[in-house]
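Known limitations

Structure tokens in this collection are predictions and should be treated as such. Users comparing against experimental data should check residue numbering before alignment. To illustrate the layout, the record for HD-GYP domain-containing protein is reproduced below. The input appears on top and the generated tokens appear beneath it.
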Amino acid sequence: MKEKESRDYYTDNLAQVSKSNSVIASENIYNEKGALIVPAGASISADVAEKIASHKLSKPIEETVSLERSVSSQVIIAHFKKMPDHPEIQAIFTSEKLLAHFEEACKGIDRYPLINQKLTVMAERFPAIYKKAVFGAFLSMLLCRELDFTEQQRHAIFIGALARDIGMLHIDPKIVSKSGRFNAQEWRLIQGHVAISFHFLNLVPNVSQNTKVAVLEHHERTDGFGYPRRKLEFELSREGQVIAFSDMLIALFNKYVIELGYSMLALEPILQINASRHKYENAQAAIRIFKSLVAPMKPKHQGKKIGELVSRLSRAHPLFNLLFLQMQEFNELLTKANFGIDLKPTTHSLSALQSIMITSGISDESILRWIDSLKIDSMLDQDILEIEKYGLMINEGFWRFNELMKRFEVMLASNQIPAEKQEEYSRYFAQVKKTYSLLASLLTVKS
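Generated tokens:
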């Protein structure tokens, strides 16, 4: 595995691309000792890639090769126009005004041929990651305009959104393409794409420092649960959090709109729960954008299904509140014990979640009374919509609990809690897990 970890797989990806898009050495390729490895003009085949991989090069491989065809701004625009297959997204993507803004923003990418090269390889080798980059750049552009960012900021963010996952091209393609859960070693390698992307941008002439920082921070979160540096809100740039928010928005769109069939405005209550993860201003801006561009939300549940949803939410409400209190108490116990565990992320996350619960009313007892008063056979569409919105909010709140559970489990498994205290804390946490499991059985999103 050590060889796999140290190997740079970008050359392997170039070799695969060369089967349909000629990749040649644009100059002699030397190793660090000055020995010629590949002469100028040679094609980068699988055999050549294997030869290159066994050497440490004098220059990065991307600086010594050229592709017959590259993803330019015009190619990105053409791809963008073909991307949407969801009717609500089509309505946004085909807006002449928004398309004109996107075309203007895209022109900036042609200043950076090395990024064009990487996007070309990404589009061929990992089309889903490429589409996510283009979609993310578009969403980032919308947010920048809504938040009235300067032209310089908009450019930095747009380029960062396109380049943020370039590091994936240097990681074992089998891991990058893997479906299902990563093991710990694989997850560590995947997380490494952030640093790889950042270091690559240091090679690209004239890329702004704001773009580099934004890429380095695009998996950071304001509650300290992100990576690679687990920064908190006051330490994070606005640019990086716009890209991070766009990433989250794409994930929520795929989950709720594409997979589960909700309308796009169903994301509004979900964003309210996630508002603190990547700066409130981004969530508020996204909600304003959706309301101005998307048709009103329509009910998804009818008949027997709405009755089942109401029943589940009625039972979930008290469990949701109980789980929050149990987690809060467990976090306070660990804080008072002073075992040297870093509790800043969990404390910050619980505080942010409590604020959201209060402002959204998600945990208020009046909600439960209202749910219990509903007559299923005579519910109006507006009642169904409110129930669905509440269900989406409480479900997304549960996934915030899920993150906290994982963090607490890591703490208990560490050797930071003294052996004589392990049983006491494990016993308390078992009660938290019991409540969590009961809530999970009611709130796992059902289509």
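For this record: The first helix runs from residue 2 to 6. The chain has three domains: 9-67, 73-292, 303-443. Please report discrepancies through the issue tracker.
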